[in-house]
Protein backbone atom coordinates (compact mmCIF):
# COMPACT_ATOMS: atom_id res chain seq x y z
CA UNK A 1 0.00 0.00 0.00
CA UNK A 2 1.24 3.50 -0.82
CA UNK A 3 0.83 6.59 1.37
CA UNK A 4 -0.02 8.68 -1.68
CA UNK A 5 -3.00 6.57 -2.71
CA UNK A 6 -6.74 6.92 -2.30
CA UNK A 7 -7.09 3.55 -0.56
CA UNK A 8 -4.59 4.62 2.11
CA UNK A 9 -5.82 8.18 2.66
CA UNK A 10 -9.57 7.60 2.53
CA UNK A 11 -9.89 4.07 3.92
CA UNK A 12 -6.85 2.57 5.64
CA UNK A 13 -5.67 5.61 7.63
CA UNK A 14 -9.12 6.64 8.90
CA UNK A 15 -9.77 3.02 9.93
CA UNK A 16 -6.46 2.86 11.83
CA UNK A 17 -7.01 6.18 13.59
CA UNK A 18 -10.62 5.38 14.47
CA UNK A 19 -9.64 1.99 15.86
CA UNK A 20 -6.57 3.22 17.72
CA UNK A 21 -8.17 6.26 19.34
CA UNK A 22 -11.32 4.29 20.03
CA UNK A 23 -9.16 1.88 22.01
CA UNK A 24 -7.51 4.82 23.80
CA UNK A 25 -10.92 6.23 24.70
CA UNK A 26 -11.98 2.83 26.01
CA UNK A 27 -8.75 2.70 28.06
CA UNK A 28 -7.74 -0.66 26.67
CA UNK A 29 -4.28 -2.00 27.52
CA UNK A 30 -1.21 -1.00 25.52
CA UNK A 31 -0.90 -4.69 24.60
CA UNK A 32 -4.29 -4.55 22.86
CA UNK A 33 -3.25 -1.42 20.97
CA UNK A 34 0.00 -3.07 19.90
CA UNK A 35 -1.94 -6.09 18.66
CA UNK A 36 -4.19 -3.77 16.64
CA UNK A 37 -1.23 -1.87 15.16
CA UNK A 38 0.52 -5.16 14.34
CA UNK A 39 -2.52 -6.49 12.50
CA UNK A 40 -2.91 -3.23 10.56
CA UNK A 41 0.79 -3.29 9.73
CA UNK A 42 0.39 -6.77 8.28
CA UNK A 43 -2.57 -5.61 6.19
CA UNK A 44 -0.57 -2.62 4.98
CA UNK A 45 2.47 -4.72 4.06
CA UNK A 46 0.59 -7.65 2.56
CA UNK A 47 -1.86 -5.58 0.52
CA UNK A 48 -0.35 -6.55 -2.84
CA UNK A 49 1.38 -9.81 -1.89
CA UNK A 50 0.26 -11.45 1.38
CA UNK A 51 2.95 -14.13 1.13
CA UNK A 52 5.67 -11.58 1.95
CA UNK A 53 4.10 -11.14 5.40
CA UNK A 54 5.29 -14.68 6.22
CA UNK A 55 8.87 -13.72 5.37
CA UNK A 56 8.71 -10.65 7.60
CA UNK A 57 7.18 -12.69 10.44
CA UNK A 58 9.89 -15.31 10.00
CA UNK A 59 12.79 -12.87 10.32
CA UNK A 60 11.02 -11.11 13.20
CA UNK A 61 10.49 -14.36 15.14
CA UNK A 62 14.07 -15.43 14.54
CA UNK A 63 15.55 -12.14 15.76
CA UNK A 64 13.28 -12.00 18.79
CA UNK A 65 14.39 -15.47 19.90
CA UNK A 66 18.04 -14.77 19.14
CA UNK A 67 17.66 -11.61 21.22
CA UNK A 68 16.38 -13.75 24.10
CA UNK A 69 19.38 -16.00 23.60
CA UNK A 70 21.71 -13.01 23.95
CA UNK A 71 19.95 -11.67 27.05
CA UNK A 72 19.58 -15.07 28.74
CA UNK A 73 23.28 -15.80 28.30
CA UNK A 74 23.84 -13.99 31.61
CA UNK A 75 21.87 -16.72 33.38
CA UNK A 76 24.62 -19.18 32.45
CA UNK A 77 26.71 -17.65 35.22
CA UNK A 78 24.33 -19.23 37.74
CA UNK A 79 25.34 -22.59 36.31
CA UNK A 80 29.03 -21.85 36.69
CA UNK A 81 29.77 -20.53 33.19
CA UNK A 82 32.84 -18.30 32.79
CA UNK A 83 32.83 -14.79 31.35
CA UNK A 84 34.30 -16.15 28.14
CA UNK A 85 31.50 -18.71 27.80
CA UNK A 86 28.82 -16.09 28.46
CA UNK A 87 30.40 -13.77 25.91
CA UNK A 88 30.65 -16.57 23.36
CA UNK A 89 26.95 -17.34 23.82
CA UNK A 90 26.01 -13.71 23.29
CA UNK A 91 28.25 -13.43 20.26
CA UNK A 92 26.76 -16.58 18.75
CA UNK A 93 23.24 -15.10 19.00
CA UNK A 94 24.38 -11.85 17.42
CA UNK A 95 26.29 -13.58 14.60
CA UNK A 96 23.34 -15.87 13.82
CA UNK A 97 21.08 -12.82 13.55
CA UNK A 98 23.47 -10.97 11.23
CA UNK A 99 24.11 -14.01 9.03
CA UNK A 100 20.46 -15.09 8.76
CA UNK A 101 19.17 -11.60 7.99
CA UNK A 102 21.86 -10.87 5.44
CA UNK A 103 21.32 -14.30 3.87
CA UNK A 104 17.60 -13.56 3.43
CA UNK A 105 18.42 -10.15 1.98
CA UNK A 106 21.06 -11.61 -0.33
CA UNK A 107 18.78 -14.36 -1.62
CA UNK A 108 15.88 -12.10 -2.55
CA UNK A 109 17.85 -9.05 -3.62
CA UNK A 110 21.11 -10.28 -5.12
CA UNK A 111 20.55 -13.78 -6.54
CA UNK A 112 19.46 -12.55 -9.96
CA UNK A 113 22.33 -10.01 -9.97
CA UNK A 114 24.80 -12.79 -9.14
CA UNK A 115 23.46 -14.97 -11.92
CA UNK A 116 23.73 -12.13 -14.45
CA UNK A 117 27.26 -11.31 -13.27
CA UNK A 118 28.37 -14.92 -13.62
CA UNK A 119 26.93 -15.03 -17.13
CA UNK A 120 28.69 -11.76 -17.98
CA UNK A 121 32.06 -13.03 -16.76
CA UNK A 122 31.55 -16.28 -18.67
CA UNK A 123 30.79 -14.42 -21.89
CA UNK A 124 33.77 -12.10 -21.37
CA UNK A 125 36.13 -15.04 -20.76
CA UNK A 126 34.70 -16.97 -23.71
CA UNK A 127 33.49 -19.88 -21.60
CA UNK A 128 30.11 -20.00 -23.28
CA UNK A 129 26.60 -19.89 -21.90
CA UNK A 130 26.05 -20.78 -18.24
CA UNK A 131 22.85 -22.72 -17.68
CA UNK A 132 21.02 -21.41 -14.61
CA UNK A 133 17.52 -22.51 -13.54
CA UNK A 134 14.95 -19.89 -14.50
CA UNK A 135 13.78 -19.80 -10.88
CA UNK A 136 16.90 -17.86 -9.86
CA UNK A 137 16.27 -15.24 -12.53
CA UNK A 138 12.68 -14.58 -11.48
CA UNK A 139 12.94 -14.09 -7.72
CA UNK A 140 10.59 -11.28 -6.68
CA UNK A 141 12.03 -8.66 -4.34
CA UNK A 142 9.75 -8.17 -1.30
CA UNK A 143 8.94 -4.50 -0.75
CA UNK A 144 10.86 -2.88 2.08
CA UNK A 145 13.02 -5.92 2.87
CA UNK A 146 16.17 -3.76 2.98
CA UNK A 147 14.60 -1.59 5.67
CA UNK A 148 12.94 -4.08 8.00
CA UNK A 149 15.88 -6.51 7.82
CA UNK A 150 18.24 -3.72 8.99
CA UNK A 151 15.84 -2.71 11.76
CA UNK A 152 15.38 -6.27 12.96
CA UNK A 153 19.09 -7.06 12.72
CA UNK A 154 20.09 -3.95 14.69
CA UNK A 155 17.99 -5.18 17.64
CA UNK A 156 20.23 -8.18 18.25
CA UNK A 157 23.41 -6.21 17.66
CA UNK A 158 22.32 -3.53 20.14
CA UNK A 159 21.40 -6.19 22.73
CA UNK A 160 24.85 -7.73 22.27
CA UNK A 161 26.50 -4.33 22.74
CA UNK A 162 24.29 -3.43 25.67
CA UNK A 163 22.80 -0.45 23.83
CA UNK A 164 19.17 -1.56 24.13
CA UNK A 165 16.83 -3.28 26.53
CA UNK A 166 15.06 -6.43 25.31
CA UNK A 167 11.47 -6.23 24.08
CA UNK A 168 8.99 -7.10 26.80
CA UNK A 169 7.14 -9.52 24.53
CA UNK A 170 7.13 -10.97 21.03
CA UNK A 171 4.07 -8.83 20.29
CA UNK A 172 5.94 -5.64 21.19
CA UNK A 173 8.84 -6.56 18.93
CA UNK A 174 6.54 -7.57 16.07
CA UNK A 175 4.65 -4.30 16.47
CA UNK A 176 7.96 -2.41 16.22
CA UNK A 177 9.02 -4.21 13.04
CA UNK A 178 5.60 -4.06 11.35
CA UNK A 179 4.73 -0.49 12.36
CA UNK A 180 3.39 0.72 9.02
CA UNK A 181 4.77 4.31 8.99
CA UNK A 182 8.39 3.11 8.72
CA UNK A 183 7.87 -0.40 7.39
CA UNK A 184 8.47 -0.07 3.64
CA UNK A 185 10.90 2.84 3.13
CA UNK A 186 12.11 4.01 6.51
CA UNK A 187 13.37 5.98 8.28
CA UNK A 188 15.47 3.13 9.67
CA UNK A 189 14.31 3.05 13.29
CA UNK A 190 16.38 1.21 15.89
CA UNK A 191 14.61 -0.57 18.71
CA UNK A 192 16.88 1.00 21.32
CA UNK A 193 15.67 4.46 20.36
CA UNK A 194 11.99 3.56 20.32
CA UNK A 195 11.95 1.02 23.19
CA UNK A 196 10.63 3.45 25.81
CA UNK A 197 7.89 4.57 23.40
CA UNK A 198 6.80 0.96 23.06
CA UNK A 199 6.23 0.91 26.83
CA UNK A 200 4.71 4.36 27.25
CA UNK A 201 3.52 7.06 24.84
CA UNK A 202 1.92 10.45 25.33
CA UNK A 203 -0.90 11.49 23.00
CA UNK A 204 -1.59 15.22 22.75
CA UNK A 205 -3.76 17.42 20.56
CA UNK A 206 -0.71 19.43 19.47
CA UNK A 207 1.16 16.25 18.58
CA UNK A 208 -1.77 14.96 16.56
CA UNK A 209 -2.13 18.30 14.75
CA UNK A 210 1.60 18.39 14.01
CA UNK A 211 1.39 14.85 12.65
CA UNK A 212 -1.44 15.73 10.27
CA UNK A 213 0.36 18.91 9.19
CA UNK A 214 3.61 17.02 8.57
CA UNK A 215 1.71 14.44 6.53
CA UNK A 216 0.10 17.24 4.48
CA UNK A 217 3.49 18.85 3.79
CA UNK A 218 4.90 15.49 2.74
CA UNK A 219 2.00 14.65 0.43
CA UNK A 220 2.26 18.10 -1.17
CA UNK A 221 6.01 17.67 -1.65
CA UNK A 222 5.47 14.28 -3.28
CA UNK A 223 2.58 15.12 -5.63
CA UNK A 224 3.35 18.77 -6.45
CA UNK A 225 7.16 18.68 -6.66
CA UNK A 226 8.56 15.15 -6.98
CA UNK A 227 6.11 13.70 -9.50
CA UNK A 228 6.34 16.56 -12.09
CA UNK A 229 10.15 16.33 -11.92
CA UNK A 230 9.87 12.58 -12.40
CA UNK A 231 8.02 13.02 -15.70
CA UNK A 232 10.88 15.13 -17.04
CA UNK A 233 13.56 12.74 -15.77
CA UNK A 234 11.77 9.75 -17.30
CA UNK A 235 11.66 11.47 -20.69
CA UNK A 236 15.40 12.13 -20.59
CA UNK A 237 16.46 8.67 -19.40
CA UNK A 238 13.96 6.96 -21.67
CA UNK A 239 15.37 8.59 -24.80
CA UNK A 240 16.87 6.23 -27.37
CA UNK A 241 20.27 6.43 -29.04
CA UNK A 242 20.86 9.85 -30.56
CA UNK A 243 17.56 11.19 -29.23
CA UNK A 244 19.10 13.19 -26.39
CA UNK A 245 20.85 16.53 -26.67
CA UNK A 246 23.31 17.95 -24.16
CA UNK A 247 20.77 20.45 -22.86
CA UNK A 248 17.99 17.90 -22.36
CA UNK A 249 20.45 15.58 -20.61
CA UNK A 250 21.30 18.29 -18.07
CA UNK A 251 17.64 19.23 -17.66
CA UNK A 252 16.82 15.55 -17.13
CA UNK A 253 19.46 14.87 -14.47
CA UNK A 254 18.67 18.05 -12.54
CA UNK A 255 15.00 17.04 -12.63
CA UNK A 256 15.95 13.62 -11.27
CA UNK A 257 18.03 15.18 -8.49
CA UNK A 258 14.97 17.18 -7.46
CA UNK A 259 12.67 14.18 -7.89
CA UNK A 260 14.60 11.76 -5.70
CA UNK A 261 15.09 14.33 -2.94
CA UNK A 262 11.48 15.49 -2.83
CA UNK A 263 10.16 11.95 -3.27
CA UNK A 264 12.17 10.36 -0.48
CA UNK A 265 12.07 13.29 1.92
CA UNK A 266 8.30 13.45 1.32
CA UNK A 267 8.00 9.79 2.34
CA UNK A 268 10.03 10.50 5.46
CA UNK A 269 7.85 13.54 6.27
CA UNK A 270 4.71 11.45 5.88
CA UNK A 271 6.16 8.57 7.93
CA UNK A 272 7.20 10.90 10.75
CA UNK A 273 3.79 12.60 10.62
CA UNK A 274 1.94 9.27 10.73
CA UNK A 275 4.09 8.15 13.65
CA UNK A 276 3.14 11.32 15.58
CA UNK A 277 -0.53 10.48 15.06
CA UNK A 278 0.10 7.24 16.96
CA UNK A 279 2.25 8.84 19.66
CA UNK A 280 5.63 7.77 18.25
CA UNK A 281 8.55 10.06 17.49
CA UNK A 282 10.88 8.92 14.71
CA UNK A 283 14.35 10.23 13.92
CA UNK A 284 14.63 12.87 11.21
CA UNK A 285 15.92 11.58 7.89
CA UNK A 286 16.80 14.71 5.86
CA UNK A 287 18.32 18.07 6.68
CA UNK A 288 18.46 20.18 3.48
CA UNK A 289 21.13 17.94 1.86
CA UNK A 290 21.62 20.02 -1.29
CA UNK A 291 22.85 22.89 0.89
CA UNK A 292 25.91 20.75 1.66
CA UNK A 293 29.33 22.21 0.95
CA UNK A 294 30.97 18.78 0.60
CA UNK A 295 30.08 15.14 0.07
CA UNK A 296 31.04 14.53 3.70
CA UNK A 297 28.46 17.08 4.80
CA UNK A 298 25.95 15.65 2.33
CA UNK A 299 26.02 12.30 4.13
CA UNK A 300 25.33 14.06 7.42
CA UNK A 301 22.19 15.52 5.84
CA UNK A 302 20.94 12.86 3.37
CA UNK A 303 19.10 9.70 4.48
CA UNK A 304 20.52 10.27 7.94
CA UNK A 305 19.04 7.10 9.43
CA UNK A 306 20.94 5.02 6.84
CA UNK A 307 24.21 6.97 7.10
CA UNK A 308 24.27 6.62 10.90
CA UNK A 309 23.36 2.92 10.57
CA UNK A 310 26.27 2.33 8.18
CA UNK A 311 28.57 4.30 10.46
CA UNK A 312 27.61 2.46 13.66
CA UNK A 313 27.19 -1.07 12.27
CA UNK A 314 29.77 -1.15 9.47
CA UNK A 315 32.32 1.70 9.38
CA UNK A 316 33.15 1.69 13.12
CA UNK A 317 33.27 -2.16 13.41
CA UNK A 318 35.64 -2.17 10.42
CA UNK A 319 37.95 0.05 12.44
CA UNK A 320 36.69 3.49 11.48
CA UNK A 321 39.55 5.99 11.60
CA UNK A 322 41.34 4.25 14.47
CA UNK A 323 43.69 2.08 12.40
CA UNK A 324 45.72 4.57 10.40
CA UNK A 325 45.14 6.79 7.39
CA UNK A 326 45.23 4.13 4.68
CA UNK A 327 42.86 1.83 6.55
CA UNK A 328 40.48 4.77 7.09
CA UNK A 329 40.24 5.30 3.33
CA UNK A 330 39.67 1.58 2.78
CA UNK A 331 36.92 1.58 5.42
CA UNK A 332 35.24 4.59 3.83
CA UNK A 333 35.31 2.93 0.40
CA UNK A 334 33.98 -0.38 1.71
CA UNK A 335 31.21 1.31 3.67
CA UNK A 336 30.00 3.35 0.71
CA UNK A 337 30.29 0.50 -1.82
CA UNK A 338 28.23 -1.73 0.48
CA UNK A 339 25.84 1.20 0.99
CA UNK A 340 25.51 1.47 -2.78
CA UNK A 341 24.87 -2.25 -3.09
CA UNK A 342 22.24 -2.01 -0.34
CA UNK A 343 20.27 0.32 -2.61
CA UNK A 344 20.10 -2.16 -5.45
CA UNK A 345 21.59 -5.23 -7.12
CA UNK A 346 23.40 -3.51 -9.96
CA UNK A 347 26.93 -2.46 -10.89
CA UNK A 348 25.56 1.06 -11.25
CA UNK A 349 24.84 1.20 -7.52
CA UNK A 350 28.31 -0.13 -6.76
CA UNK A 351 29.83 2.61 -8.93
CA UNK A 352 27.57 5.19 -7.26
CA UNK A 353 28.78 4.07 -3.83
CA UNK A 354 32.41 3.92 -4.97
CA UNK A 355 32.31 7.53 -6.23
CA UNK A 356 30.89 8.68 -2.90
CA UNK A 357 33.51 6.66 -1.02
CA UNK A 358 36.29 8.13 -3.16
CA UNK A 359 35.00 11.66 -2.55
CA UNK A 360 34.76 11.09 1.21
CA UNK A 361 38.36 9.85 1.16
CA UNK A 362 39.52 12.73 -1.04
CA UNK A 363 37.89 15.36 1.17
CA UNK A 364 39.41 13.79 4.27
CA UNK A 365 42.83 13.72 2.62
CA UNK A 366 42.64 17.33 1.42
CA UNK A 367 41.51 18.75 4.75
CA UNK A 368 40.01 22.15 5.52
CA UNK A 369 43.23 24.08 4.84
CA UNK A 370 43.65 22.93 1.25
CA UNK A 371 42.51 24.94 -1.76
CA UNK A 372 39.49 22.66 -1.93
CA UNK A 373 38.55 23.24 1.68
CA UNK A 374 39.25 26.98 1.52
CA UNK A 375 36.94 27.72 -1.43
CA UNK A 376 34.02 30.09 -0.74
CA UNK A 377 31.01 28.19 0.61
CA UNK A 378 28.64 29.07 -2.29
CA UNK A 379 31.21 27.71 -4.74
CA UNK A 380 31.60 24.53 -2.70
CA UNK A 381 27.82 24.04 -2.64
CA UNK A 382 27.71 24.37 -6.43
CA UNK A 383 30.65 21.97 -6.87
CA UNK A 384 29.08 19.45 -4.47
CA UNK A 385 25.77 19.55 -6.33
CA UNK A 386 27.63 19.08 -9.62
CA UNK A 387 29.35 15.96 -8.26
CA UNK A 388 26.02 14.68 -6.96
CA UNK A 389 24.47 15.10 -10.41
CA UNK A 390 27.21 12.88 -11.87
CA UNK A 391 26.53 10.20 -9.25
CA UNK A 392 22.75 10.42 -9.72
CA UNK A 393 23.23 9.36 -13.36
CA UNK A 394 24.44 5.94 -12.17
CA UNK A 395 21.67 5.79 -9.58
CA UNK A 396 18.93 6.43 -12.16
CA UNK A 397 20.20 4.70 -15.30
CA UNK A 398 18.98 1.16 -16.01
CA UNK A 399 22.49 -0.18 -16.58
CA UNK A 400 26.09 0.90 -17.06
CA UNK A 401 25.76 1.36 -20.82
CA UNK A 402 22.84 3.77 -20.38
CA UNK A 403 24.75 5.68 -17.68
CA UNK A 404 27.87 5.92 -19.85
CA UNK A 405 25.89 7.17 -22.84
CA UNK A 406 23.96 9.68 -20.70
CA UNK A 407 27.16 11.09 -19.17
CA UNK A 408 28.79 11.33 -22.58
CA UNK A 409 25.78 13.28 -23.84
CA UNK A 410 25.90 15.62 -20.83
CA UNK A 411 29.46 16.59 -21.72
CA UNK A 412 28.89 16.88 -25.47
CA UNK A 413 30.79 13.71 -26.38
CA UNK A 414 27.89 12.14 -28.31
CA UNK A 415 26.54 13.47 -31.58
CA UNK A 416 22.83 14.16 -31.22
CA UNK A 417 20.66 12.56 -33.90
CA UNK A 418 17.82 14.17 -35.87
CA UNK A 419 15.23 13.06 -33.29
CA UNK A 420 17.05 14.95 -30.50
CA UNK A 421 15.56 18.27 -31.61
CA UNK A 422 12.07 16.77 -31.46
CA UNK A 423 12.58 15.46 -27.89
CA UNK A 424 14.17 18.74 -26.86
CA UNK A 425 11.18 20.68 -28.14
CA UNK A 426 8.82 18.26 -26.37
CA UNK A 427 10.70 18.49 -23.07
CA UNK A 428 10.95 22.26 -23.19
CA UNK A 429 7.22 22.35 -23.79
CA UNK A 430 6.56 20.04 -20.85
CA UNK A 431 9.06 21.72 -18.54
CA UNK A 432 7.41 24.50 -16.61
CA UNK A 433 10.11 26.98 -15.62
CA UNK A 434 8.16 27.90 -12.49
CA UNK A 435 8.35 24.27 -11.34
CA UNK A 436 12.14 24.26 -11.59
CA UNK A 437 12.35 27.63 -9.86
CA UNK A 438 9.99 26.46 -7.13
CA UNK A 439 12.06 23.31 -6.59
CA UNK A 440 15.27 25.35 -6.46
CA UNK A 441 13.69 27.82 -4.02
CA UNK A 442 12.56 25.02 -1.70
CA UNK A 443 15.96 23.28 -1.92
CA UNK A 444 18.31 26.23 -1.41
CA UNK A 445 16.27 29.00 0.23
CA UNK A 446 13.54 27.55 2.44
CA UNK A 447 14.29 25.90 5.80
CA UNK A 448 13.65 22.17 6.02
CA UNK A 449 10.31 20.73 7.06
CA UNK A 450 11.25 19.88 10.63
CA UNK A 451 12.43 23.45 11.21
CA UNK A 452 9.17 24.85 9.86
CA UNK A 453 7.08 22.41 11.91
CA UNK A 454 9.09 22.27 15.13
CA UNK A 455 5.96 23.28 17.07
CA UNK A 456 2.27 23.65 16.33
CA UNK A 457 1.09 27.00 14.94
CA UNK A 458 -2.38 27.34 13.48
CA UNK A 459 -1.36 29.06 10.24
CA UNK A 460 1.18 26.31 9.48
CA UNK A 461 -1.61 23.78 9.95
CA UNK A 462 -3.69 25.75 7.44
CA UNK A 463 -0.84 25.60 4.92
CA UNK A 464 -0.53 21.86 5.52
CA UNK A 465 -4.27 21.43 4.98
CA UNK A 466 -4.17 23.43 1.73
CA UNK A 467 -1.22 21.37 0.46
CA UNK A 468 -3.07 18.19 1.40
CA UNK A 469 -6.27 19.21 -0.43
CA UNK A 470 -4.45 20.36 -3.57
CA UNK A 471 -2.31 17.20 -3.60
CA UNK A 472 -5.36 14.94 -3.20
CA UNK A 473 -7.10 16.74 -6.09
CA UNK A 474 -3.98 16.23 -8.21
CA UNK A 475 -3.92 12.54 -7.24
CA UNK A 476 -7.21 12.03 -9.05
CA UNK A 477 -5.57 13.22 -12.29
CA UNK A 478 -2.22 11.40 -12.11
CA UNK A 479 -3.39 8.02 -10.79
CA UNK A 480 -0.81 5.66 -9.26
CA UNK A 481 2.17 7.48 -7.73
CA UNK A 482 4.67 5.05 -6.18
CA UNK A 483 7.67 6.18 -4.14
CA UNK A 484 11.12 5.66 -5.65
CA UNK A 485 12.56 4.00 -2.55
CA UNK A 486 9.98 1.21 -2.66
CA UNK A 487 12.27 -0.52 -5.16
CA UNK A 488 15.18 -0.55 -2.71
UniProtKB/TrEMBL annotation:
<keyword id="KW-1003">Cell membrane</keyword>
<keyword id="KW-1133">Transmembrane helix</keyword>
<keyword id="KW-0012">Acyltransferase</keyword>
<feature type="transmembrane region" description="Helical">
    <location>
        <begin position="53"/>
        <end position="71"/>
    </location>
</feature>
<keyword id="KW-0472">Membrane</keyword>
<feature type="transmembrane region" description="Helical">
    <location>
        <begin position="375"/>
        <end position="395"/>
    </location>
</feature>
<dbReference type="InterPro" id="IPR051085">
    <property type="entry name" value="MB_O-acyltransferase"/>
</dbReference>
<feature type="transmembrane region" description="Helical">
    <location>
        <begin position="6"/>
        <end position="23"/>
    </location>
</feature>
<protein>
    <submittedName>
        <fullName>Alginate O-acetyltransferase complex protein AlgI</fullName>
    </submittedName>
</protein>
<feature type="transmembrane region" description="Helical">
    <location>
        <begin position="135"/>
        <end position="157"/>
    </location>
</feature>
<dbReference type="InterPro" id="IPR028362">
    <property type="entry name" value="AlgI"/>
</dbReference>
<comment type="similarity">
    <text>Belongs to the membrane-bound acyltransferase family.</text>
</comment>
<keyword id="KW-0808">Transferase</keyword>
<feature type="transmembrane region" description="Helical">
    <location>
        <begin position="456"/>
        <end position="478"/>
    </location>
</feature>
<keyword id="KW-0812">Transmembrane</keyword>
<dbReference type="GO" id="GO:0016746">
    <property type="term" value="F:acyltransferase activity"/>
</dbReference>
<dbReference type="GO" id="GO:0042121">
    <property type="term" value="P:alginic acid biosynthetic process"/>
</dbReference>
<feature type="transmembrane region" description="Helical">
    <location>
        <begin position="332"/>
        <end position="355"/>
    </location>
</feature>
<dbReference type="InterPro" id="IPR024194">
    <property type="entry name" value="Ac/AlaTfrase_AlgI/DltB"/>
</dbReference>
<dbReference type="InterPro" id="IPR004299">
    <property type="entry name" value="MBOAT_fam"/>
</dbReference>
<dbReference type="Pfam" id="PF03062">
    <property type="entry name" value="MBOAT"/>
</dbReference>
<dbReference type="GO" id="GO:0005886">
    <property type="term" value="C:plasma membrane"/>
</dbReference>
<feature type="transmembrane region" description="Helical">
    <location>
        <begin position="92"/>
        <end position="115"/>
    </location>
</feature>
Amino acid sequence: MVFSSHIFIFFFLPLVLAGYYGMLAAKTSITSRHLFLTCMGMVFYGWHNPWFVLLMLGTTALDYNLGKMIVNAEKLREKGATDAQVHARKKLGMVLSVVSNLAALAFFKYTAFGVESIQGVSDWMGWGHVTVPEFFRNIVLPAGISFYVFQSLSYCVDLYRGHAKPAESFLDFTCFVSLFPHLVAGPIVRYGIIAEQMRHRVHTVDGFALGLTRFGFGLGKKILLADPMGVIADQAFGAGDGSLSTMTAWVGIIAYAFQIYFDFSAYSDMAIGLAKLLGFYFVENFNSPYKSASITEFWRRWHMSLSTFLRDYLYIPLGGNRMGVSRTYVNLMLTMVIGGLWHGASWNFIIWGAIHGAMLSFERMMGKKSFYGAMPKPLKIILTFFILLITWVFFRAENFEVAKRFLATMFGMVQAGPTAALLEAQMLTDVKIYQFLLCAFVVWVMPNTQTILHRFVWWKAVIGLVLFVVAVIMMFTIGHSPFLYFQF
